[in-house]
Fold this sequence. Notes:
By secondary structure, the protein is of the alpha+beta class. It contains seven helices and five strands; from the N terminus they run H-E-E-E-E-E-H-H-H-H-H-H. Strands 1-2-3-4-5 form a five-stranded antiparallel beta sheet.
Amino acid sequence: MEFSKIVLEKLGLIFKEYSLNIIERRSDYLKLNSKYLRIIISHNRFENSNTIWLGRNDEKSAKVEIDDEILKQFFNSKLKLSQVSTETFINNLVLFFENEALPLFTNNKNKISELEKFNLDRSQKYTQELLVNQNLFAANKEWEFGNYKEFIKLIDKIDKVELPTSYQLKYNIAKHKVEK
């Protein structure tokens, strides 16, 4: 049976109850809208993966992929949607929609805004961690080549609170060598 048909069999009553209307349907894809909310549920046959996105009902707003981390940290849920079978994904989606997702369905624009902010904060944190790691990698190279001035410049780009102890020690050694 096709993915979208199974989703509609399991979740159709919830969609109806909260005025979520199907605006696009394919065998592996559903897009639903309510007054304030857009939901996209899809299955990728090539990767055998399933995904759900939630967000505002407009074209401008980015939709938030609901993964296990968001389920746990934002919705305080122990459900799993990532890397599970299609059957488990759909069953957990039913439980999610019947419980944790209810504030989103009751036209609670604040909950949608909180979800978007949570996702943006998470994305910014991830990006910051990447930048720190890139600077640490580059600083290591400069340290290995004895380019202490460049090492210091790279370390100065990093918040010292985030700096591992070994780098703080190397930083102090580099400062001392440059001052000589």
